[in-house]
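Re-run requested by the PI after the first attempt was lost when the workstation crashed. Everything re-entered from the original request form. Ligand of interest: LP5.
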Amino acid sequence: MPRALFISDLHLAPGRTDLTAAFEGFLERLPADTQALYILGDLFDYWAGDDDLADPFNARVVALLASLAERNVALFLLPGNRDFLMGERFMAAAKAKRLAEIHLLDLHGVPTLLLHGDELCLRDAAYRNFRATVRDAAWQESFLARPLAERKAKIEALRARSEAEKRAKDYDLMDADPAAAEDLLRIHGATRLIHGHTHRPARHAHAVDGRPCERWVLASWDDQPGGLECDADGCRPFTA
Ligand code: LP5
Ligand code: MN
C-alpha cells in the first residue's frame, strides 16, 4: 500500500559514522511502495549555511538524499532548530522541497499537521527568546554574511552552552505543551499532528472541541533509529 515515512532528529555529523550508516541502511531498505519521505527537522547536528555544501561529509549526505528522486520518492524537508539555515541551494542539490515551519498535509483524507516540535515548548523561556532572535530574517541575513569558519565556531560554542543549559533545565519544562498542540490542531482544523524535537517517542490522544485527535512524537536516531509510517490504514512506528 502506498505509504509516507516521517523521520526527524537524525543529528548527522562527520564524527557519528554510526548515524550516517543507519541512515544509509534505512534508505537502501525503503519499501518499494514508499511515495514520500518527510524529514521533520534536525537532519544534521547543525547546518551553518548552504556555502557548506562543498564539505565532503555534507556532499555525501546530500547525494544520498538526491538519489531518492531517481527512485520516485518525493523528499520534503521541514526546518529544525539545528538546521533551519538550510536554504534553496541545499534543496536544489538534495532534490527536495522545503516545507514551512508548520505544514498541513492531507494524508489519505486525514488533515495532518507537520512541525519540528520546538515551537511547542512554550515553558522554555530561554529557548523561546533565542528562537525569536535567530528565526528573524534580518538576523539570518547578517549571520550568513559572516565567514563560514566563524559561523561554525559560534554554533559549536552555542551547542556546548545549549547542552550545559539543558542539564540544568527541568525535564518537564523541555517537553511539548499539550495545550499548544491542541491550539494548533484547532487553528488548522487538523486531527493528527506529527513532530519530533523532544526525543520522547509516543502517541498521545487529544480531544479538541470534542474531536478525537492524535499526536505522534518521533524518536531521536541517537536513541532509536526510525520514525513513523502512514498509509490509508493509519500510522505506526517503524524501526530503521
Ligand atoms: O538542539 P537541542 O535539542 O540540543 O536543544 C534545543 C535548544 N538549543 C538550541 C541550540 C542549538 O542546539 C544550537 C545549534 C543551532 C544551529 C543553528 C544555527 C544558527 C544559530 C547560530 C547562532 C550563533 O536550539 C535548547 C532547548 C532544547 O532544544 C529543548 O527544547 O532547551 O535551548 C537552549 O539551550 C537555548 C538556551 O537556553 C539559551 C541560549 C541563549 C544563547 C544566547 C546567545 C546566542 C547568540 C546568537 C543570537 C544573537
Ligand atoms: Mn530539535
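Saved to the shared folder this time. The chain has seven helices and eleven strands.
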